[in-house]
Amino acid sequence: MTVALVPPITYGMGHVDADPLTTGPRYVRTGGMSRWHRPRAGIRWQDGRVVYTVWCGQQVGGLRAARPMVTADTVPDGLPVCGTCEGRAIGAGQDDQPTDRPPLLFGPRSLTPPRHCPGSRMDLYAPLPGGTAGRCLACQDTHPIRAMGGPYASRTGIVQHPPGAALFAPCPFHRWRHPRRAAPDSDLLACMCGRPLTAPQ
Ligand SMILES: [Zn+2]
Ligand SMILES: [Zn+2]
Ligand SMILES: [Zn+2]
Predict the structure, then answer these.
(1) Ligand 3: centre distance to CA 171 (Å)
(2) Residue 89 backbone dihedrals phi, psi, to 5 degrees
């Protein structure tokens, strides 16, 4: 049995060529680890290697070929489970809550949509006739456009606004952080890693 993984969010371009995994085993460790950890996110490289980021922040798998990764649905060998991993995995909703104590809560902020549309204050809009409003390319809502920046760096942008209902589905690696035009004169968006950004189906 597998559990749902969260997207393999990254702040760089380190593993964007790999495929994000949406499900994984409940517990993992390598032969040298003294406790089991719980996968939070995972990727599969083109050569087939699988690497999990566990909830406590370590990476399991991949290059440690000398000490192969072991996976389990229930802990089989009496080894302890990493408390950080267990608490965060349950608190984030990856697994059932305990029934004999108050619920655990862990909410990674980067998973929830941003408070302000990522098109806010950017030139990511299609101007509407009249020149005072534009259609936001990130969420498709219409808002006023304004001059922004100082006198020496004047540009126009769409005003800050909450994300519209058609906000693009997040990049698995960079979420909503790095939208740009797919091409200089295109009204389609792509992430900085090149993945197209379109509204959820
Ligand atoms: Zn852990
Ligand atoms: Zn928008
Ligand atoms: Zn990306």
Answers:
(1) 5
(2) -65, -45
CA nearest 144: which of 165, 167, 119?
Answer: 119
Is 30 in contact with 64 (CB distance < 8 Å)? yes
Distance CA 151, CA 118 (A): 24
CB 138 within 8 Å of CB 162:
no
Q: What is the pLDDT of residues 146-193, one digit of tens each?
A: 988 777 777 889 999 999 999 999 999 999 999 999 999 999 999 999
> How far apart, in Å, do the first and last CA atoms of the chain sit?
27
Residue 12: Cβ-neighbour burial (10 angstroms; 0-12, 13-18, 19+): exposed
Whole-number Å distance between alpha carbons of 47 and 159 = 45
pTM of the predicted protein model: 0.77
Distance 82 CA to ligand 1 centre (A): 5
User: In the β-sheet with 196-197, what is the strand arrangement from edge to edge?
Assistant: 179-181, 189-191, 196-197
